[in-house]
Amino acid sequence: xxxxxxxxxxxxxxxxxxxxxAPGDRLPGEPALVREHGVAxxxxxxxxxxxxxxxxxxxxxxxxxxxxxFQPIRRVANRRLSEERxxxxxxxxxxDVGQRPMSVTGLRVYETPAPDDVARLLDLEExxxxxxxxxxxxxxxxxxxxxxxxxxxxxxxxxxxxQEETGPGGTYARLAELGSKPVRFVEEVxxxxxxxxxxxxxxxxxxxxxxxxxxxxxxxxxxxxEVNRMLLDAGAYVMEYHITG
Length: 245
Hints:
With 245 residues, the chain is an alpha+beta fold.
């Protein structure tokens, strides 16, 4: 009896997890899957697509589908946002990637009226100016996250936050120097399908979802001093949270 696309994907996924298909190995192509499982070519294609959208495989034009060599980033929100990290001049990104090569590309820093949703989160008047930091993070040469930070311009425009290089510890260390140290963070997380522009920016395979995170940084007085909208390649991340009851 012919198998379904999901059953074929389950079998290939198990071979990847067991190591019989190693990172960089070529997966069986559509013709091979058709012969082995007695399915239509479209079913074989859907099985491979399932693995691509899960982040386990990548397609190479004119070559085939391969086991993804990129190892998922473990994002531990509690650890990366601790003052111990940025207060010592370390990037919060170092908590995620360790010694893996990481770079920031396409950085744009500018001032603009706050979007309505950002103005509400920052408790600003409609149209109040914000400093925007828009950038793309790449790990081992792969784009994995687009991030846009919004900060009240009246607070940060005379600081390094309004420059390309924020200095050791980044934005949060500079906010602390301004007397607006973040002590609490709120993250709202949802998964969705990306727009065409978002797919192109993150180099996403067709059908790959994204994780969208809105993080608000607050001072001890409860003032919101940053809103950061992050868009993550869902196949490139494992999200880990430590919760104390």
